[in-house]
Design brief:
Blueprint lengths: L1 E7 L6 E6 L6 E7 L10 E3 L5 E2 L7 E2 L1 E4 L6 E6 L16 E9 L1 E7 L3 E6 L5 E6 L10
Antiparallel strand pairs: 1-9, 2-11, 3-4, 3-10, 5-6, 7-8, 8-9, 11-12
Length: about 140
């Protein structure tokens, strides 16, 4: 079992506390098998609300279950229920961990920030609930 931390970096101007907009946020990762090192060609989605059965385990569940197309081994990933998502508040684009996932038989080797995020106006406290990070820059006003 390996615990992977996702660290992100962003240049925040006049906003802070960048984080996913909802608890059922879909995280998109590129996944690699730790047995044969095969990397899945597409990003896969994982979220904290969906659980799937892990074969071979007594009532074992994970948030993501994947069978490698090359070596056919089953792998899984699970969010730690006690670990909260940490809003990104770093300055100057420094990396900051925001998420931790327990992985068995796989590694997440790439991250795509698609989906809706939210942040807070640094001075006004206004919450911006529809931050789209699929483009290189996001701008709004309050």
């Amino acid at each position: 079992m390996v615990r992977l931390k996702l660290s992100i970096s962003a240049t925040l101007e006049n906003v802070t506390a960048l984080q996913p907009a909802s608890d059922d946020f879909e995280w998109f990762f590129q996944v690699q098998c730790t047995s044969c090192r095969e990397t899945h060609p597409k990003h896969v989605a994982i979220n904290r609300t969906e659980e799937h059965e892990v074969s071979g385990g007594k009532n074992a569940k994970a948030h993501f279950v994947w069978r490698c197309g090359n070596c056919k081994r089953e792998s899984s990933a699970k969010f730690d229920p006690s670990a909260r998502i940490t809003p990104y508040t770093a300055e100057n684009g420094n990396p900051q961990p925001i998420l931790e996932i327990e992985c068995r038989g796989l590694e997440f080797v790439g991250f795509d920030p698609r989906g809706m995020w939210k942040c807070v106006g640094a001075e006004s406290g206004t919450v911006f609930n529809e931050v789209d990070l699929s483009e290189p820059e996001w701008v709004d006003y309050d």
